[in-house]
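Below is a filled-in request sheet from our internal design queue. Each sheet records the structural input a requester submitted and the sequence that came back. We keep these sheets so that new team members can see what a complete request looks like end to end.

REQUESTER: design group, bay 2
PRIORITY: normal
MODE: inverse folding
CHAIN LENGTH: 374
BACKBONE (tokenized):
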């Protein structure tokens, strides 16, 4: 809870400060990805480019200057040509490293790579979209991916906290199997409801998303019931999870997928978006984004200091604070968790129904951290 309080206080200060101080630097290390996932615009981007070295250096400098956490994603971060050097530098120059991977090559790491990940990364997030090889490999379009990820997760060493990130099918029926798998692998579980606009602002949405968006309202009640039941099951299995916060939004999220009112009418009044006030987001071209879903601002890579770089996001912050929303906000289930947490801490009375769930989650993470060290 102390970390939650610190994050909320930082946002409160940043809302007024002329010189805001970020808490996280999030990097799309590379646009390259060997994945062919059903739900992602990067599918088939095998030949994408790595983030230019000067921009990477700028971002590491920013994390160092402000004592931030660093979050490494992509594309596929382990497809970056020098990922080992980047991970080592990130650990040395930040307050902690989170790494998001689709699991590619995890079974081919040598002992030195495994030791590097285990020591340099605090939180490893491994995507698993199905609880069996047949389902997961089909959804991600790569044979052997499930076996690679689970082989890595079963053999030691690995980072202190390891999470499975799961994008459920629209009706969320498969959650109990994912909970059991995560518990058996001694991982936490992050359920990431399907984003139905493009996950990358420079790319058009994957064609199947339009169809999904029109189907989501039909499964809203079913999805809500499945998520609520899954939250109970996950508590019984004793793993940390985010199902309470997903349960707080999944019904209206699906019901209003097609009319666009989930974020502005149902979320914003209680759960303000705080992402641009706490996170510096840099795309694989080294450009500053207000958040992963919104287009990059012009020219930040040429800014001489890291601090100026961060302050360039001011315009978006002003517009967001004035109540403006963008098409991408309609489907921003990805940042709902952090906005849910910050809103509860900043306005505990208004959001008192979520307080018990937040405390439960923190206790579970605490117990989980210790168990993984054992
Ligand atoms: C963009 S990927 C980058 C890291 C890595 N390539 C991976 O797959 O984990 C980060 C996360 O976004 C998720 N994601 C991609 N497209 C999505 C969508 N349409 N809806 C929900 N999550 C999505 C992925 O499943 C993954 O867990
Ligand atoms: S979800 Fe990750 S692995 Fe799959 S295509 Fe997108 S970036 Fe690649
Ligand atoms: S897409 Fe909208 S809601 Fe999501 S993080 Fe960006 S500004 Fe916030």
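RETURNED SEQUENCE:
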């Amino acid at each position: 809870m102390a970390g939650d309080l610190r994050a909320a206080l930082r946002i409160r200060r940043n809302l007024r400060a002329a010189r805001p101080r970020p808490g996280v630097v999030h990097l799309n290390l590379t646009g390259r990805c060997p994945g062919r996932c059903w739900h992602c615009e990067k599918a088939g981007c095998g030949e994408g480019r790595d983030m230019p070295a000067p921009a990477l250096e700028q971002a590491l400098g920013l994390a160092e200057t402000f004592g931030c956490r660093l979050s490494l994603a992509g594309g596929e971060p382990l497809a970056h040509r020098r990922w080992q050097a980047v991970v080592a530098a990130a650990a040395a120059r930040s307050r902690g490293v989170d790494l998001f991977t689709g699991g590619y090559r995890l079974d081919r790491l040598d002992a030195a790579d495994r030791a590097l990940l285990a020591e340099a990364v605090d939180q490893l997030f491994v995507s698993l979209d199905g609880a069996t090889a047949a389902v997961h490999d089909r959804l991600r379009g790569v044979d052997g991916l499930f076996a690679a990820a689970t082989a890595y997760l079963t053999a030691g060493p690995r980072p202190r906290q390891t999470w499975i990130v799961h994008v459920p099918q629209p009706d969320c029926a498969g959650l109990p199997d994912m909970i059991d798998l995560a518990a058996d692998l001694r991982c936490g579980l992050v359920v990431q409801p399907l984003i139905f606009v493009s996950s990358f602002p420079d790319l058009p949405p994957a064609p199947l998303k339009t169809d999904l968006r029109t189907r989501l309202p039909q499964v809203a009640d079913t999805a809500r019931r499945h998520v609520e039941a899954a939250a109970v099951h996950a508590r019984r299995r004793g793993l940390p999870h985010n199902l309470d916060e997903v349960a707080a939004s999944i019904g209206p999220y699906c019901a209003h997928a097609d009319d666009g009112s989930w974020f502005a009418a149902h979320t914003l009044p209680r759960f303000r978006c705080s992402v641009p006030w706490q996170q510096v987001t840099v795309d694989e071209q080294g450009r500053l984004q207000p958040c992963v879903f919104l287009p990059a601002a012009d020219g930040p890579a040429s800014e001489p200091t890291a601090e100026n770089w961060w302050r360039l996001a001011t315009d978006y912050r002003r517009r967001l604070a004035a109540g403006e929303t963008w098409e991408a906000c309609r489907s921003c289930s990805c940042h709902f968790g952090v906005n849910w947490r910050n809103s509860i801490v900043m306005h505990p009375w208004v959001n008192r129904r979520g307080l018990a769930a937040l405390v439960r989650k923190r206790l579970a993470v605490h117990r989980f951290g210790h168990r993984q060290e054992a």
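SHEET NOTES:
- The chain has one domain: 2-6+22-373.
- The mean pLDDT is 86.
FILED BY: M.R.
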